[in-house]
Amino acid sequence: MQYIIEGYKPARLFRFFEEISAIPRGSRNEAGIADYLVEFAKARGLECHRDAIENVFIRMPGSAGREHEPAILFQGHTDMVCEKNNDTVHNFETDPLKLAIADGKLYAEGTTLGADDGIAVAIMLAILDGELESHPPVECLFTSQEEIGLHGADAFDCSLIRARRMINLDSESDNSAIVGCAGGIRSDMSLPLTRMPFAGEALRIEVKGLMGGHSGENIHLGRANANKLMARILNVLLAEDDLHLCTCVGGSKDNAIPRECCALVSVRSAADAAAKVLAIAEDIRGELVADDANFTVTAAPAAAPAVMLDTDTTRHIVLPMTVAAIGVLAMNHSVGMVEYSRNMGVIRLEENSPSLRLVFSSRSPKESQLTASIRELDALAALVGGSFNHHSRYPGWDYAPVSPLRDAYIDAYTRLYGEQPIIKSIHAGLECGLLKAKIPDLDIIAIGANLENIHSPAEKMELASCEKIWTIIAAILEM
Ligand SMILES: [Zn+2]
């Protein structure tokens, strides 16, 4: 194999990164990388377990004299997001990534790099390959299907794990550690729909141009939610213009802040209603953050469909959308972070939909808040004769008041770099939450190399930051 990364230490970490970059490893396609890991362990006589979902767990004894120290667990995911530029020819099932370097940063030509989380795999392989002369017993957990719902970590049999401290390697900056993450739950509301022949005048309303973003990591930025703005508009027409909904479609993912929402409605007078819509839009414009500067609303007469929802059904959709609390619901004031949030990510009501789809996603590191969210949404649905299906719940990882591993990290970092690292929680899901739920006394930090633009073809990894993370890990294992 031709290697391109030269001059960074430890050399074998980068060799491993290049080797695994030649193995296609999109989510659900982890068999190849699992084969590689099992072969790697076999060749070195290391205990190795592979499960049905292609998680791989490898154990290495402590170095001479340190065999009886408490073990440490390293963890990261083998799968990557497969995205490419439109003009790039690349088959993610079969083709190796084409790595290149510019300005000390590694990237893949035209595709995602998979440093999220290939860097974790490479670091664990370097450790298991004996790069550190002195170390306690080491366990390495390579999980699968992280990017599509944390399925590998969810399925893994944690009884194999003996360690009670874990370094997760799926973070994205070399000067910080993550010490907590949010859990989440998805809630889909359904509602019986009663339709009647169309009457009145048809009006098409479109809300567009919002910035959107990730419903966890960007929820504190104050960006507007297109579905919520549509609800605000519809609620006025409901009160004054004999509104009947025909269709309403907004957002595409439960975990993205919706940027657009489009509704086709019946009103008494399309011209009157359109004027009101545009007036509300001007009110809204004066309230938006700078990120949403491209916000536009249009309201124009449209061809009438055959049917529309009756008045009650229309109310039963517009009212919950109007009153449902979304955005940041609670702050953790002791750390100045979002603690509890909710997104109204998707509304799908097509002309002939048998039922409404209105999708919320709630997040919190505290199980009690997720439970409270379920009850609050259920109460809302009960008011209008609807119901919620709550699903895809995963636990968070709440900030631990006492964490010797966190202390060791801060100590090592401060000694090495003469300044304090940043300690933070994130408002998104991590595999750490699932593992912590299964091993409640697991002491965890999450660290990682500097990555940019993950999940996109512009993904880059700063090579010097990999050296830095390696140095920190080595220092922690020395303690
Ligand atoms: Zn990741």
Explain the overall architecture.
The structure is a single chain. The chain has helices spanning 11-21, 31-43, 115-128, 151-155, 226-240, 270-285, 311-323, 367-383, 404-417, 431-438, 463-478; strands at 47-50, 56-60, 72-77, 99-102, 105-108, 138-143, 165-168, 176-181, 183-190, 195-197, 201-208, 213-214, 244-250, 256-257, 261-267, 296-301, 307-309, 327-332, 337-349, 357-364, 387-394, 422-426, 443-446, 451-452, 460-462. By secondary structure, the chain is an alpha+beta fold. It has 2 domains: 11-181 and 397-478, 3-Layer(aba) Sandwich (Aminopeptidase); 185-264 and 297-391, no CATH class. Strands 9, 11, 13, 15, 16, 18, 19, 20 and 21 form a 9-stranded antiparallel beta sheet that branches. The protein has a 6-stranded mixed beta sheet with strand order 1-2-6-3-7-23, with helices on both faces. A hairpin with a 2-residue loop joins strand 4 (99-102) and strand 5 (105-108). The structure holds zinc ion. Zinc ion is lined by residues 77, 116-117, 146, 170.
CATH architecture of the largest domain: 3-Layer(aba) Sandwich
Task: Report the β-strand fraction as a percent range.
Answer: 25-35%
The CATH topology of the largest domain comes to: Aminopeptidase
Backbone shape: elongated
Question: Would you tell me the overall average pLDDT?
Answer: 96
Query: Which percent range fits the helix content?
Result: 25-40%
Count of strand segments: 25
Identify every distinct bound molecule in the structure, by name, code or SMILES.
zinc ion
Termini separation: 37 Å
Classify the oligomer: single chain
CATH superfamily of the largest domain: Zn peptidases
Structural class of the secondary elements? alpha+beta
Radius of gyration: 26 Å
What profile does the largest beta sheet have? 9 strands, antiparallel
Q: Uncertain spans, ≥5 residues at pLDDT below 50? A: none
Number of domains: 2
